[in-house]
Amino acid sequence: MTDHPLPFRDPQLSFSRRTDDLLGRLTLDERIAMLHQFAPAVERLGLGPFRTGQEALHGVAWMGPATVFPQAVGLGATWNDDLVRRIGEAVGNEVRAKRAQDDRVGLNVWAPTVNLLRHPLWGRGEEGYSEDPALTSAIAVAYTRGLRGDDPRYWRTAPVLKHWLAHNNETDRDTASSSVRPRVLHEYDLRAFRDAVRAGAVAGVMPAYNLVNGRPNHVSPLLEQHLRRWTDQPLVVCSDAGAPSNLVDSEHYFDTHEEATAAALKAGVDSFTDHGTDSTVMTGRIRDALAKGLIDESDIDTAVRRLLAMRFALGEFDPELDPYARVDDLDTEEHRALALEAAEQAVVLLKNDGLLPLEPEQGRTVAVVGLLADACKLDWYSGTLMHRSTTLDGIRERYGAENVLFTEGVDRVRLKSSDGWLRVPVADGAKDAEARGAEGALDPALLAGRTDLPPLTCGEEATELALVDWGDGVLTLRTDEGLYLSVADDGYVRASADEPGGWVVQETFRLEAVEGHDGGHRLLHIGTGGYVSVAADGAKVAESGEKISRDDATVFEPETVEYGADAVARVAAAADTVIVVAGNDPHINGRETEDRTTLALPAQQDRLWRAAHAANPRTVLVLASAYPYAVVDAAEGLPALLWTAHGGQAAGTALARVLAGDVSPAGRLPQTWYASDDDLPGLFDYDIIGSRQTYLYFSGTPLFPFGHGLGYAGFSYSALRTEVDGEQLRVSLTVTNDGATAADEVAQVYVRAAGPAEKDEPAPKGLGRRLPGLGDHVDLPLRKLVGHRRVHLAPGAAERVEFVVPVEELGHWSVAHGRWAVEPGAYEILAGASSADIRLTATEVVDGEARGPRPVVARGLEAADYDRQKDTVILDRRKTEGDVVAPASAGGEGHLVYRACDFGEGVAGLAFLVSGEGAIAVSVGGHSLSTLFSGDQGPYEYRTVETALDLRGVHELSIGLSGSLRLARIDVIPGKESA
Which of 176, 336, 432, 501 is packed most tightly, with the most Cβ within 10 A? Predict the structure, then answer.
């Protein structure tokens, strides 16, 4: 009982009781209004407005100045849980501090992104931590614990994990379906979310735009079947922006928005992010769904209860008790030092033939060259810089400006038309404008380009432009004043942007050769799809809202004043050592909405490092990028090679300190660097097992392996001890710094099955591991990370490092038995400096009872529970739950293999649960037959068709599928003995 007139205001009561009391006081309209991202105030109860969603991936984003830490993939490269937790605390405190300044800042943060970096061409790879689920989980747990805070009752911020589930393609991202077999689902994709949720520092998840197994993630049954079973605390599911409407508009999964909204609510979506700040559309759909009986009030109440629970945890109703209510830590000295520490720890030394460290010496000159040498790049989820350090800045500061030579290496061009040279007019009276995003906006995509500057014209005098080809012919053009050619809403071309940016980048162009015109080119503006035409009122790509066609484009003849490679060669020859800085702009060719097309370094940047090296063999290549490159020639020919993700505000200072030897690099690759595009599967191939993806299954030779990274000191590993202690595997080893400098080392522990056939020799290349206790090959990982520790050691010092690994980590998802299985037998424990640099090994034996073959008589076969497949996809059995398997293409044939099927004492045949029409070919136990299916029912209308077969004992079952057939399940027809 409570004497408080409004029990939900009574801090002596539990959050649960207070939530129930407040829920009971809200009217139906008030409750429905809370289901939109922008929930209005309820003034009669003293409730303020509430917003879900504040971007905070590597700092507070979209809300103006904030501390900018390295990109998420860079945080993954630190392999340092403690560091990332401290960064989470700093970001959480800055969210609180900015909230005190601007109530548009939300405390429900949409971070981190835990999608696994399965495919290196994925455009959003910069947002994830690693290709490995264990490393991703560890970093996510650390970051969310920092964001959440240590108070047992109140949360600093409420983190939401993105993006549920199996989301690694921007191409067709709102219509493509990821085909995810059960083993990949349980061993890989779910694992990335599970540990962070179990750790208790996650407030919810955001479903991804894509479909999984033919069903949109926003109506996924996995939200209830898995996510909410991992914890007892309420979890809020926030839709991605516009995704509720996509269920009808682009995916056509439902016929009406009322059906779609009802299905999402019933599946577990609580907060609808759609139509921006206008909540009326979504709340109207909810009301209509309620009126039509598609949902009832209990569905609404369930979602509102979870949202209110989050608001109570954030201290909204107890400001006097909330320990984070008065936090004002923004741009503190500690945060600036932490940003530098993070940038230093994220640097990965890929190769070093002794050129590094490059200690500053009297008279030693260093050339700093490259398109990113004087850049401090931000990405879509960065805040606005308060401090900025480029590589050039850092090296000038560390080596002395008088000892540093610089050239960017751009191609300097002029563009001539029949009306004269393209030129940038003098901007008389133009007012100064802030950098894009500086003013802070809930959605920076809404920021318009500048129109206060005059558009480009043609005349007698040319403006020289710095041309950069970022790959695939995507160009930027920049003036000597540092302004990029850009297009505003009025369609005119101006020199107006400080950097490329925006949801639709307005600063990229493409030169297209004109047939029959020697040297003539049209200039296409990629953002609008219009061609540049220079008229009396200036250069434009659109007029009266209509984009200019190629037929109406001005024809330009580009003239190269100076090639960047020539300038680089000249500067490189004049220096003792050359630092080439190459990489990407995070807004171009690989970002949200846009996947990469190749691992290759863009040709213009490839020419620059080659020119530098030809002029000066003492050339270091630094790749500052959001993703890996296949730089085979550079790795073979250059004496030193480094990689760092875009390192935030302190990137340049950090890199200079690493190059100079002030800090020994100890970053490690969080994903495999492949040597060629030929090593990659298709972007839409999510079967990492079947297509041998990531270090877990890739049997080729990578350019650089997962976990790789060098330093300036050598480390030795010794005294490996392992022990199975009940449900735990205990591992300990000693790491010793054998070098002459203090340095960090990242000790890594992997496990793999070591079946009887592999005790004396390894498995055949690419065939996976032998499953202990079962005489058949199962495609188990070649090795799997189960522990890592970053340690700092003085010269000659040693440290004993201990790991406690749950024995369940040795297991896999058994499709034969529908559960997690740790098979009895021998397992290898491998310890070393990377997945390929194993220094110590040991073997432990796990006791228990082998699971044995598939009990098909008792359990039947779910079609998706195959062992191997070719040319099939998994689709939705029903709109609410279940899977089926179908041929990948309507005119093709798919194949499935189910190993070790135990038909017992005998069965009389097989029964197939199918929809659609086509044929099934069966091969089992020496029998082969084909059955045709016909019918005009829809894809969700199933029927059972039986085939007579006399089967007994254990056999491999092979199934061929063709036509529009969807196979849901296979059961046995009992024989006389089993009956």
Answer: 501
